[in-house]
Write a structure and sequence with these properties.
By secondary structure, the protein is of the alpha+beta class. It is built from 15 helices and 16 strands. It binds adenosine-5'-triphosphate (ATP) and magnesium ion.
């Protein structure tokens, strides 16, 4: 137990961190290009926020939340997703009074008590955006175009964009009635969760993963065929705009999404490579959510990318991520005087922005050179008594193996220059 991370969590080790930083920075850069600003929020919120915000008929709220009571008797929950917290913050800080729309992006860990599978964890990472105050189809198309640009910038190919409209509460009411009629003589043979949902939120049944239930749903009425005129026009505008930009999509009438708050446009980016957990990104419009959480009626739309799945997808496509180079220089020393000089040099080099690894183990010259090589240092310099006296040393180019005699006074200038031209 002591030496094992909790089930469903994973460490991101130094050897892997470069690809995480690369993806996170790319995401931030693309978001800023579209006018989004980063927001950072607490890992836990009041449980009620998720019950309301995510919706208490969802799998997340019914089965997956990490909920606990703190010492003050409050019920708190580790965030299972990002949107509810961002909405809470938008309301709490009166962001509606800022110039609209409000465009926010985030980089978070999220927590869900789920069955472990490839691409499915209990602590995982999401990159997401939320856009408040823009109800027009332009916003839907722009958010999707941001995603396409992001995946392109990572060289990810062949993700399928699946698109659907799940209408608004008004058109859903009529549809739910039809769905209930369809399910009336089938529900008896379906799972317990579906039985619970038939009265509270029959549409959720369409998202059931149980194979038996899926069989019963094959002939179910399709929501997209029952949406109202306003929702239909909105959806047609979104698809037209995507065509205008040249973004390829497929209409998937089966997407209902796992969160209660969605309306109108819902979408997913799906991979064919990484198995059953192939949904790399999910998103959609949630025009009722802000009001549900206590704010003024405000349209909203957003998405979240699962970073673990994104990295799996990149790996399966053989996409290489630039690796951080080794240190600019390794500084070794033999003897006390040399050690002192090295300390001074290392301080000066580092102050000038040069990556410098200095011996702090007092090892033999041979061991130090071996270590410099392992680190992938670009140059190495070993200083002994002679070098202290002459103020000169032999700089080893670790790429070519050549040595060059240099004056220690010029070491910093030289490395700064080499760094600029290398
Ligand atoms: P799924 O159908 O795979 O359970 P979801 O609909 O629950 O996904 P969302 O709530 O929309 O997922 O979250 C957005 C994205 O976050 C998903 O598309 C996925 O990439 C990622 N994600 C969700 N749950 C997990 C998890 N347990 N582990 C890793 N990534 C996850
Ligand atoms: Mg899920």
């Amino acid at each position: 137990m002591l030496t094992q991370a909790p089930k469903g969590t994973h460490d991101i080790l130094p050897d892997e961190i470069d690809k995480w930083i690369f993806v996170e920075q790319k995401f931030a850069e693309i978001c800023r290009r579209f006018g989004y600003r980063e927001i950072r929020l607490p890992v836990f919120e009041h449980t009620e926020l998720f019950q309301r915000g995510v919706g208490d008929t969802t799998d997340i709220v019914q089965k997956e939340m990490y909920t606990f009571e703190d010492k003050g008797g409050r019920s708190l929950t580790l965030r299972p997703e990002g949107t509810a917290g961002v909405v809470r913050s938008y309301i709490e800080h009166g962001m509606a009074s800022l110039p609209q729309p409000t465009k926010l992006f985030y980089n978070i860990t999220a927590y869900r008590y789920e069955k472990m599978q490839k691409g499915r964890f209990r602590e995982f990472h999401q990159l997401g955006v939320e856009l408040f105050g823009a109800g027009d189809a332009s916003a839907d198309a722009e958010i999707i175009s941001l995603l396409v640009l992001f995946f392109d910038s990572l060289n990810i190919k062949n993700l399928t964009l699946n698109l659907n409209s799940i209408g608004c509460p008004e058109c859903r009411a009529a549809y739910n009635q039809k769905l209930k009629e369809f399910l009336a003589d089938r529900i008896g043979n379906m799972c317990e969760t579906c039985k619970e949902r038939i009265d509270r939120n029959p549409m959720r049944i369409l998202d059931c993963k149980d194979e038996g239930c899926r069989q019963h749903l094959k002939e179910a009425p399709v929501l997209l065929d029952h949406i109202c005129d306003d929702c239909r026009v909105h959806f047609e505008k979104v698809t037209q705009k995507l065509q205008d930009i040249g973004i390829h999509y497929e209409i998937d009438k089966g997407i209902v999404r796992g969160l209660d708050y969605y309306n109108r446009t819902v979408f997913e980016f799906v991979s064919r490579n990484i198995g059953s957990q192939g949904t790399v990104c999910g998103g959609g419009r949630y025009d009722g959510l802000i009001e549900t959480c206590g704010g003024a009626p405000t349209p909203g739309i957003g998405f979240a990318i699962g970073v673990e799945r994104l990295l799996l997808e990149m790996e399966s496509q053989g996409i290489e991520i630039p690796i951080r180079p080794g240190p600019d220089i390794y500084l070794g020393s033999i003897g006390e005087k040399a050690e002192k000089l090295c300390e001074k040099l290392a301080w000066e080099l580092r102050s000038e922005g040069i990556t410098c690894i200095k011996d702090i183990m007092g090892r033999s010259v041979k061991a130090q050179m071996k270590y410099a090589d392992k680190l992938g240092a670009r140059y190495a310099l070993i200083i002994g008594d002679n070098e202290v006296e002459s103020n000169k040393a032999s700089l080893k180019d670790m790429k070519t193996g050549e040595f060059k005699d240099i004056s220690l006074d010029t070491l910093i200038d030289r490395l700064v220059k080499i760094r600029e031209t290398d």
